[in-house]
Amino acid sequence: MRKYNENGQLGAVCCNMCGKKMIVKEGILREGAACFDQAWGYFSEKDGEVHHFDLCEECYDRLTAEFCLPVDVEECLEYL
Length: 80
Ligand SMILES: [Zn+2]
Known about the structure:
Elements: E1 2-4, E2 10-14, E3 21-22, E4 24-25, E5 28-29, E6 33-39, E7 50-56, H1 57-65
Antiparallel strand pairs: 1-2, 2-3, 4-5, 6-7
The chain binds zinc ion.
Residues 15, 17-18, 20, 55-56, 58-59 line the site of zinc ion (ZN).
């Protein structure tokens, strides 16, 4: 979950799974987090809805460890 200040700068990020407040300094998230922005389409039950949530790295690891197929991982050549 993200909160923005009146000036549009990122103010706070909390993990939706455990509620942990992550470190944000000067509008920049200073720790590993996974950010999800899912726009549901026509063939879903949620057509027209956009869902946003954030996970801290620990919750991301816990969640993906339960996948029956592993996450695809590749080397990142440029920092995104
Ligand atoms: Zn968490």
